[in-house]
Design a protein that fits this description.
By secondary structure, the protein is α/β, with parallel strands linked by helices. The chain starts with 8 loop residues before the first strand and ends with a helix. Strands 1, 2, 3, 4, 5, 6 and 7 form a seven-stranded mixed sheet that branches. Helix content is 40%, strand content 24%.
Length: 223
Protein backbone atom coordinates (compact mmCIF):
# COMPACT_ATOMS: atom_id res chain seq x y z
CA UNK A 1 0.00 0.00 0.00
CA UNK A 2 1.18 3.50 -0.86
CA UNK A 3 -0.31 6.74 0.44
CA UNK A 4 -1.34 9.51 -1.91
CA UNK A 5 1.01 12.48 -1.71
CA UNK A 6 -1.76 14.72 -0.33
CA UNK A 7 -2.08 12.31 2.61
CA UNK A 8 1.60 12.33 3.57
CA UNK A 9 2.39 13.43 7.12
CA UNK A 10 5.41 15.38 8.34
CA UNK A 11 8.26 13.27 9.69
CA UNK A 12 8.80 15.82 12.47
CA UNK A 13 5.30 14.94 13.68
CA UNK A 14 6.63 11.65 15.08
CA UNK A 15 8.50 13.58 17.75
CA UNK A 16 5.36 15.56 18.65
CA UNK A 17 3.21 12.41 18.62
CA UNK A 18 5.60 10.50 20.87
CA UNK A 19 5.72 13.40 23.33
CA UNK A 20 1.94 13.98 23.35
CA UNK A 21 -0.72 12.80 20.91
CA UNK A 22 -2.84 15.87 21.62
CA UNK A 23 0.07 18.22 20.91
CA UNK A 24 0.62 16.47 17.58
CA UNK A 25 -3.06 16.79 16.64
CA UNK A 26 -3.22 20.48 17.59
CA UNK A 27 -0.22 21.21 15.36
CA UNK A 28 -0.76 18.83 12.43
CA UNK A 29 -4.55 18.52 12.30
CA UNK A 30 -5.83 21.80 13.73
CA UNK A 31 -2.82 23.81 12.43
CA UNK A 32 -2.24 25.56 15.76
CA UNK A 33 1.16 26.66 16.99
CA UNK A 34 2.69 28.83 19.69
CA UNK A 35 6.28 29.80 20.37
CA UNK A 36 8.13 29.68 23.65
CA UNK A 37 11.81 30.03 24.48
CA UNK A 38 12.57 26.38 23.79
CA UNK A 39 10.83 26.26 20.40
CA UNK A 40 12.45 29.55 19.34
CA UNK A 41 15.94 28.36 20.26
CA UNK A 42 15.32 25.03 18.56
CA UNK A 43 14.06 26.78 15.43
CA UNK A 44 17.17 28.96 15.23
CA UNK A 45 19.44 25.92 15.60
CA UNK A 46 17.59 24.05 12.84
CA UNK A 47 17.84 27.06 10.53
CA UNK A 48 21.61 26.86 10.90
CA UNK A 49 21.63 23.11 10.31
CA UNK A 50 19.37 23.48 7.25
CA UNK A 51 21.59 26.05 5.54
CA UNK A 52 21.94 24.20 2.23
CA UNK A 53 24.66 26.60 1.07
CA UNK A 54 26.99 25.18 3.73
CA UNK A 55 26.98 21.66 2.31
CA UNK A 56 30.58 20.60 1.99
CA UNK A 57 33.12 17.92 1.15
CA UNK A 58 35.92 16.81 3.45
CA UNK A 59 38.06 14.30 1.62
CA UNK A 60 36.00 11.12 1.38
CA UNK A 61 33.17 12.65 3.42
CA UNK A 62 30.30 14.46 1.66
CA UNK A 63 28.05 16.46 4.01
CA UNK A 64 24.60 17.40 2.66
CA UNK A 65 22.23 19.66 4.62
CA UNK A 66 18.47 20.09 4.31
CA UNK A 67 18.05 16.94 2.23
CA UNK A 68 14.38 16.40 1.36
CA UNK A 69 13.16 12.84 1.89
CA UNK A 70 9.88 10.95 1.59
CA UNK A 71 8.30 7.51 1.59
CA UNK A 72 5.01 6.83 -0.17
CA UNK A 73 4.81 3.49 1.61
CA UNK A 74 5.03 5.11 5.04
CA UNK A 75 3.11 8.20 3.93
CA UNK A 76 5.63 10.74 5.26
CA UNK A 77 7.93 13.47 4.01
CA UNK A 78 10.34 15.98 5.49
CA UNK A 79 13.94 17.10 5.54
CA UNK A 80 17.08 15.73 7.17
CA UNK A 81 19.21 18.25 9.04
CA UNK A 82 22.39 16.57 7.83
CA UNK A 83 23.19 13.43 5.86
CA UNK A 84 26.80 12.30 5.78
CA UNK A 85 27.87 10.25 2.77
CA UNK A 86 31.20 8.53 3.30
CA UNK A 87 33.11 6.90 0.43
CA UNK A 88 33.43 3.18 1.14
CA UNK A 89 34.10 0.08 -1.01
CA UNK A 90 30.72 -1.58 -0.38
CA UNK A 91 28.44 1.47 -0.46
CA UNK A 92 25.88 2.70 -3.00
CA UNK A 93 26.41 4.86 -6.09
CA UNK A 94 25.41 8.53 -5.94
CA UNK A 95 24.37 10.51 -8.98
CA UNK A 96 27.14 12.87 -10.03
CA UNK A 97 29.69 11.33 -7.66
CA UNK A 98 32.46 8.80 -8.24
CA UNK A 99 32.80 5.69 -6.13
CA UNK A 100 30.37 4.17 -3.66
CA UNK A 101 29.00 5.69 -0.49
CA UNK A 102 27.53 4.84 2.91
CA UNK A 103 24.63 6.90 4.32
CA UNK A 104 24.51 8.33 7.86
CA UNK A 105 21.71 10.75 8.90
CA UNK A 106 22.30 13.25 11.72
CA UNK A 107 19.52 15.21 13.44
CA UNK A 108 20.29 18.34 15.46
CA UNK A 109 18.38 18.90 18.69
CA UNK A 110 18.21 21.71 21.21
CA UNK A 111 18.87 20.82 24.83
CA UNK A 112 19.93 17.45 26.16
CA UNK A 113 19.29 13.79 25.41
CA UNK A 114 15.83 12.53 26.33
CA UNK A 115 14.86 9.35 28.14
CA UNK A 116 11.96 8.73 25.73
CA UNK A 117 12.30 7.71 22.08
CA UNK A 118 10.81 10.88 20.54
CA UNK A 119 14.02 12.05 18.85
CA UNK A 120 15.15 8.55 17.94
CA UNK A 121 11.82 7.81 16.24
CA UNK A 122 12.11 10.92 14.07
CA UNK A 123 15.67 10.04 13.05
CA UNK A 124 14.74 6.42 12.34
CA UNK A 125 11.88 7.54 10.09
CA UNK A 126 14.31 9.73 8.15
CA UNK A 127 16.60 6.74 7.69
CA UNK A 128 13.71 4.56 6.52
CA UNK A 129 12.84 7.18 3.87
CA UNK A 130 16.47 7.35 2.74
CA UNK A 131 16.56 3.56 2.46
CA UNK A 132 13.54 3.59 0.12
CA UNK A 133 14.89 6.46 -1.96
CA UNK A 134 18.47 5.16 -2.29
CA UNK A 135 17.92 1.41 -2.26
CA UNK A 136 20.15 0.70 0.69
CA UNK A 137 20.13 -0.33 4.35
CA UNK A 138 21.08 2.24 6.98
CA UNK A 139 21.98 0.56 10.28
CA UNK A 140 22.58 3.68 12.38
CA UNK A 141 22.60 7.46 12.61
CA UNK A 142 23.20 10.10 15.28
CA UNK A 143 21.48 12.81 17.30
CA UNK A 144 23.54 15.93 18.04
CA UNK A 145 22.44 17.71 21.22
CA UNK A 146 23.44 21.33 21.57
CA UNK A 147 23.80 21.56 25.35
CA UNK A 148 26.47 18.85 25.76
CA UNK A 149 27.59 19.50 22.16
CA UNK A 150 28.11 15.86 21.36
CA UNK A 151 26.55 13.11 19.30
CA UNK A 152 24.44 10.27 20.55
CA UNK A 153 24.57 7.15 18.37
CA UNK A 154 21.21 5.63 17.40
CA UNK A 155 20.87 2.07 16.13
CA UNK A 156 17.92 1.52 13.82
CA UNK A 157 17.02 -1.91 15.14
CA UNK A 158 13.84 -3.89 14.50
CA UNK A 159 12.19 -2.66 17.70
CA UNK A 160 12.63 1.02 16.82
CA UNK A 161 11.53 0.49 13.22
CA UNK A 162 8.41 -1.37 14.32
CA UNK A 163 7.56 1.44 16.74
CA UNK A 164 7.87 3.98 13.91
CA UNK A 165 5.47 1.98 11.74
CA UNK A 166 3.00 1.46 14.57
CA UNK A 167 2.93 5.17 15.46
CA UNK A 168 2.57 6.21 11.83
CA UNK A 169 -0.42 3.89 11.44
CA UNK A 170 -2.05 5.55 14.45
CA UNK A 171 -1.19 9.04 13.19
CA UNK A 172 -2.70 8.35 9.77
CA UNK A 173 -5.86 6.95 11.37
CA UNK A 174 -6.30 10.08 13.54
CA UNK A 175 -5.50 12.36 10.61
CA UNK A 176 -8.13 10.71 8.41
CA UNK A 177 -10.72 11.20 11.15
CA UNK A 178 -9.56 14.74 11.89
CA UNK A 179 -9.68 13.74 15.55
CA UNK A 180 -7.80 15.52 18.36
CA UNK A 181 -7.31 13.19 21.36
CA UNK A 182 -7.81 14.31 24.93
CA UNK A 183 -4.85 14.41 27.28
CA UNK A 184 -4.02 13.43 30.84
CA UNK A 185 -2.24 16.47 32.32
CA UNK A 186 1.25 15.80 33.67
CA UNK A 187 4.47 17.67 34.43
CA UNK A 188 5.37 17.86 30.75
CA UNK A 189 2.38 20.15 30.13
CA UNK A 190 4.15 23.01 31.93
CA UNK A 191 6.95 23.04 29.34
CA UNK A 192 4.67 22.68 26.31
CA UNK A 193 4.41 25.72 24.03
CA UNK A 194 0.77 24.81 23.35
CA UNK A 195 -0.31 24.78 26.98
CA UNK A 196 -2.70 27.72 26.62
CA UNK A 197 -4.12 26.41 23.34
CA UNK A 198 -4.40 22.86 24.63
CA UNK A 199 -6.24 23.71 27.86
CA UNK A 200 -5.21 20.50 29.65
CA UNK A 201 -7.48 21.41 32.58
CA UNK A 202 -10.44 21.35 30.22
CA UNK A 203 -9.51 17.85 29.09
CA UNK A 204 -9.16 16.67 32.68
CA UNK A 205 -12.72 17.66 33.53
CA UNK A 206 -15.62 15.51 32.52
CA UNK A 207 -17.22 18.22 30.40
CA UNK A 208 -16.82 21.76 29.14
CA UNK A 209 -19.61 22.83 31.52
CA UNK A 210 -17.63 21.51 34.50
CA UNK A 211 -14.55 23.42 33.34
CA UNK A 212 -16.47 26.68 32.86
CA UNK A 213 -18.14 26.33 36.24
CA UNK A 214 -14.77 25.79 37.87
CA UNK A 215 -13.32 28.84 36.15
CA UNK A 216 -16.31 30.99 37.12
CA UNK A 217 -15.92 29.80 40.68
CA UNK A 218 -12.28 30.87 40.72
CA UNK A 219 -13.17 34.33 39.41
CA UNK A 220 -15.88 34.73 42.07
CA UNK A 221 -13.42 33.86 44.83
CA UNK A 222 -10.96 36.46 43.52
CA UNK A 223 -13.53 39.26 43.60
Amino acid sequence: MEYREEDWLQISGLQHFSFCRRQWALIHIEQQWAENLRTTEGKLMHERAHDASSSERRGKLLIVRDLRVFSAELGISGACDVVEFRQVPDGIPLRGEKGRWSVFPVEYKHGESKENDADRLQLCAQAMCLEKMLGTVIPAGALFYETPRRREAVEFDAVLREKVCRMLDEMHALFRRGYTPKVKPNRSCNACSLKELCLPRLCRNSSAADYLNAMLGEETEMQ
